[in-house]
Every structure is written in C-alpha cells, then in structure tokens.
Q: What sequence folds into this?
C-alpha cells in the first residue's frame, strides 16, 4: 500500500472533534483567512510536509461527512487507502457526471465570480474560457496526489494565484474577490458554528464568505487540463 499523509483542518473544538485521528493529522487554523484550506496547502508544501509520504492531501474536517463514492455511499478510510498507488491523482467525485464546465457553473452558484476569473486569468497571462470542459473535475480540494504532483500544482498555479489575489495593487481583482460570494450554505454554517460570523468579521473584516476559496478550488481542475500527462481517477 502506498504511504500517504493527510491533514484535516479544524478551527474550533467542534470541528476538531470531526477529524479522524486514525486517518489524518489535525491542522488547527486559529485565524480564518479567505483562502481557507488553500492557505494551509501552500504553507504545508512550503514547509516540505508533503514529502513525508508518497501521497498528500489537505482536507476539510467535514471530509468524511461530505464525501460520497461512485455508489453514492460515504467514502471510507479503507477505500481511500486501497485506491492509492496506480495514478497520480485520486479524487472523490466520480458520481458527478455533469458540470464539466466548472467556470460557467461557478457563475451560476456564485454570481460575480466570472469577473474575478477574467481578471485573475488576465494577470496570469492566460485565456479565460468559461465554457472550457474539464477532463477531471475536483471540488473542495478533496483529492490525494503524489507528493511531486501536489508540489507542482501548488508552486505552478496555487501560489501564483494567491500572490496576485493578495496584492492590493491589483485593484480590479482585489475589489472583485472581496465581494459576497453568496455561498448557498453560509447561513447554515453560521448557525452550526456559534460565533463563526463574528470570527469572520474579526479575522477577515467581512461577515460573509468572499470569493477567494471558491475561485481557487476550481483551479486544480484547470491545472490538470494544462497537464494532460497527469493520470487521475475518481473513486
């Protein structure tokens, strides 16, 4: 069996209790950033944590609760472990046979995100095509990748995006990404985690989910389009 290292992110005692200690290390994110798990992915790769095993992943504390396999059953630790070894990337959205145009679909869910993508792609020197078909769709960063592939994605795509999004000099992008993303589950998350809205205001300065993390979670699928030699599978 291939060796793997997974982290699940927690931000309070309630989320910490969701982490499967037999499966993942706990990464306690004290301060909320608009990048959510993407910031942790970058930090851990820059620290070399991904090199401790063959496969690497940074996942939500709700990973097992939220993730279904191709049979529409909750994913298990054993299924994940048995899936590693024969491809570069393993993800958990095999049951989603539609929405391969992830950028177009994103605008339906998060009105205004297209403006963010247009400006981000311009700054990256790439062409934004909202109708681009993704060969392999990943959401929520719910994937394992071989450590060298994970590092490539972070250094080639994720980090450059975060640098651009952090720069206030990119005025058009900055203004667009800090708007309310209209995250459909926002209110239920705030109700479930007492004090979370106030934590957002304290840490980020806004009482809602801005666009940052929803932009970035679709960039892995786009990066895979740019690198067709990388092998992938869903379970």
A:
């Amino acid at each position: 069996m291939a060796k793997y290292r997974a982290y699940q992110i927690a931000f309070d005692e309630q989320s910490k209790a969701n982490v499967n200690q037999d499966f993942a290390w706990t990464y306690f994110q004290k301060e909320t950033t608009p990048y959510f798990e993407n910031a942790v992915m970058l930090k851990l790769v820059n620290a070399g944590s991904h090199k401790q095993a063959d496969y690497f992943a940074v996942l939500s504390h709700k990973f097992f609760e939220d993730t279904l396999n191709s049979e529409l059953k909750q994913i298990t630790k054993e299924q994940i472990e048995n899936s590693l070894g024969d491809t570069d990337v393993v993800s958990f959205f095999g049951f989603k046979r539609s929405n391969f145009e992830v950028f177009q679909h994103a605008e339906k869910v998060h009105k205004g995100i297209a403006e963010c993508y247009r400006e981000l792609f311009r700054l990256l020197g790439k062409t934004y095509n909202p109708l681009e078909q993704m060969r392999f769709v990943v959401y929520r960063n719910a994937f394992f990748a071989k450590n060298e592939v994970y590092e490539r994605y972070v250094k080639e795509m994720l980090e450059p995006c975060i640098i651009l999004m952090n720069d206030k000099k990119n005025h058009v992008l900055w203004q667009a990404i800090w708007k309310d993303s209209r995250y459909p589950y926002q209110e239920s998350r705030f109700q479930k985690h007492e004090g979370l809205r106030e934590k957002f205001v304290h840490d980020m300065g806004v009482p809602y989910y801005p666009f940052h993390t929803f932009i970035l979670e679709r960039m892995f699928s786009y990066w895979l389009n740019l690198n067709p030699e990388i092998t992938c599978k869903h379970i």
Notes: The chain has one domain: 4-234.
